[in-house]
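Weekly puzzle thread! Below is a chain. First person to post its structure in token form gets bragging rights.
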Amino acid sequence: MNEFRVVFRADASLTIGSGHVMRCLTLADALSKRGAECTFICREHPGNLIEYIRSKGYRVYTLARGHEVEDHNESGYASWLGVPQEEDARVSAALVKELSPRWVVVDHYALDKAWHRIVQPHAEALMAVDDLCDREHQVDLLLDQNLGRTEAQYRSLVPSGCKVLAGTTYALLRPEFAEWRRRRSASAGPPSAAQRILITMGGVDTSNATGAALDALSELHSALDPRITVVLGQTAPWLESVQAQAARLPWRVEVRTGVRNMAELMAEHELAVGAAGSTSWERCCLGLPTVMVVLADNQSYIAESLAAAGAAVIARLDSANEDRHSIRSQVQALLKHPDTLERIRRRAANLVDGEGAERVVNQMMSGPL
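Winning reply:
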């Protein structure tokens, strides 16, 4: 029996979104290629990705949906879990004890050192995947793939022996992004006027930011004549509304669901309008300039860091200054200035090379220290 076992604890839901599970799947795929046996523990929230994980060939142990709980932890995300984290930890610990893994990887804003301490005795090592840098972790390895993060920022939040992997060097991307990065680099020509726009507001997009983006782009100057591609999950609650809206627009708009070739799709576009989540690193890897929209508090750090690096621009859905900060104004300005687009493209591409998952796997394979 395979002795290098890895257990992932991550959730997806209409509230949480899909990003935590998707990046864990990326890491699981990279580990599996190196001979690891990967298993998931997921709670049955509405909008979960349990069947999708199983379709990828992984065993999933499910936890009952739970209910709303009072938020007593500092991070403010306890309600995402649906049960007290000690309860989640006890059930998870029993499964981990049975599986006896080398690593437990936990990617969940509602879980902290209290969870880790209950699960820790039943695994050789624990790893946390985090974005917030706002709570303590009792783990052997911590990954924060965000731009500007440093080991020093986490030193007071982790044990002295914990190894911290910080920054976009460790961004968890599927291997096709590195491949399409090479293809795009090899075929790169001089800057040209961007006409193909990709809208990616997350697979769920419960706030219908996609619809707001389409509204904004409907008011673009008629001489620009863009081609627009919208990507949504098949279970997105606003999917039918977006499809109807797209049909009414004056531009050529295609709404796509169930996309399995996101790297190729990104490589075919010159500009994106997208949420400032983990997909940001995919766009950077391919040098895809982005008008970023902050859809959740935890996305602000990513958006502001990328904007400060000149690797993206930020638009506000509720901008009071329509002439400067709206999606329409930001997209229109970039479409008119291909040199600016090229500068953003180069700065974004310099941040992420697509090899982060392999670097993380190498660290895990070599042990917790």
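Puzzle host: Confirmed. Bonus trivia for everyone else. The domain at 175-349 is CATH 3.40.50.2000 (Rossmann fold).
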